[in-house]
Amino acid sequence: MKIIDAKVIVSCPGRNFVTLKLLTDAGLYGIGDATLNGRELAVVSYLQDHVAPCLIGRDAQQIEDIWQYLYRGAYWRKGPVTMTAIAAVDTALWDIKAKAAGMPLYQLLGGKSRRGVMVYGHANGEDIEQTVEQVGNYIDMGYKAIRAQCGVPDLPSTYGVSKDKMFYEPAAAALPAENLWSTEKYLNHIPSLFEKLRQTFGPEPHLLHDAHHRLTPIEAARLGKALEPYCLFWLEDAVTAENQAGFRIVRQHTTTPLAVGEVFSTVWDCKQLLEEQLIDYIRATVVHAGGITHLRRIADLASLHHVRTGCHGATDLSPVSMGAALHFDLWVPNFGIQEYMRHTQMTDEVFPHNYTFKDGYLHVGEEPGHGVDIDEKLAAKYPYQRAYLPVNRLHDGTLYNW
């Protein structure tokens, strides 16, 4: 079964997505997500100019060989652009193989390890009271796990807080917006949010929080220790992970579970974190970590060290990624949780899919493949629009981590 065409589709149904469609001489096609938030066109060029010409004529069934060809054969390995492009090809090939087998993708991976995929939603508010209200709304919708973010006094904007409480999109400006940040104000405020949440809802709902790479190790240790009485499911991205050893300091001072990895592109980005058991959840994704083929390797290494998966699932991943991730989640034995930020109706119409939400879980359909397609005619009605994520500055003007 030969690959005869590789189409790169760019569309903006409310936000930018890059989609790869591989067609074969058997009449089957596969879909892969290639979206890299704020750097979408870099992946478009990588695919169109460098990857697509190498795919034509190759056997679509040779997934592992094609993965190695694109990774080892490039010589310049790793990095988010390269690995997002490889992921798109890999996801599309798994989609094709599952369709050829007449099976839903999870069956090819080894079958179900669970009946459904527990997901968490995003509750946020301008202040503690609003966030408490939004957490209640998510509980009413059936969520068993909720990420809670709230505004910080005297800061005009805070990561994770949006005007639209259901559809949060931070990449919303043609040039990067500049936000103001104060670690001191944040650290003094956030424990009060979770104190109020536990007072209101008790111990039952799983509560999560994202520090979004803004803390030093000792600051993260302080926050983790302050949050211990409220039994968080996890504290996410407490520290930037370029220096993986930084998590040792956090680990030495708190028992709050730690999660990181949405920006990781290979197993090498998390090798030390996993081997030294410095985290509890690995958040690498299908689309940014080389596809299902490579994410399986990350999950297998994690399982040896008591680390569970918690894949990133924000709206900068298209429904194609979500569909593939859910098949992966359904199979992977050391599953923890799956992030689920709902896409807009406009996005869902461009990417028809068969996964459904019920009582805190996502469920995939039984159709062959990963269950997500793209309406190319509708996608063409939404042309690319340049959009950047914000940046942060401290009060003295120093550029900081967003």
Write the topology of this structure.
Layout: E1 3-11, E2 17-24, E3 29-33, H1 40-55, H2 63-72, H3 80-101, H4 105-109, E4 117-125, H5 128-140, E5 145-150, E6 178-180, H6 183-201, E7 206-210, H7 217-227, E8 234-236, H8 246-253, E9 258-260, H9 271-275, E10 281-282, H10 291-303, E11 308-309, H11 319-331, E12 338-339, H12 345-350, E13 356-358, E14 361-363, H13 376-379, E15 391-393, E16 399-400
Parallel strand pairs: 4-5, 4-12, 5-7, 6-15, 7-8, 8-9, 9-10, 10-11
Antiparallel strand pairs: 1-2, 2-3, 4-14, 13-14, 15-16
Summarize the structure.
With 402 residues, the protein is α/β, with parallel strands linked by helices. The protein has helices spanning 40-55, 63-72, 80-101, 105-109, 128-140, 183-201, 217-227, 246-253, 271-275, 291-303, 319-331, 345-350, 376-379; strands spanning 3-11, 17-24, 29-33, 117-125, 145-150, 178-180, 206-210, 234-236, 258-260, 281-282, 308-309, 338-339, 356-358, 361-363, 391-393, 399-400.
Care to describe what's here?
The chain is of the alpha/beta class and about 400 residues long. The chain folds into 2 domains: about 5-105, Enolase-like, domain 1, CATH 3.30.390.10; about 110-370, TIM Barrel (Alpha-Beta Barrel), CATH 3.20.20.120. The chain contains 13 helices and 16 strands. Strands 4, 5, 7, 8, 9, 10, 11, 12, 13 and 14 form a 10-stranded mixed sheet that branches. It is globular, with a radius of gyration of 20 Å. The termini are far apart. The relative contact order is 0.16. The model has no long low-confidence stretch (mean pLDDT about 95).
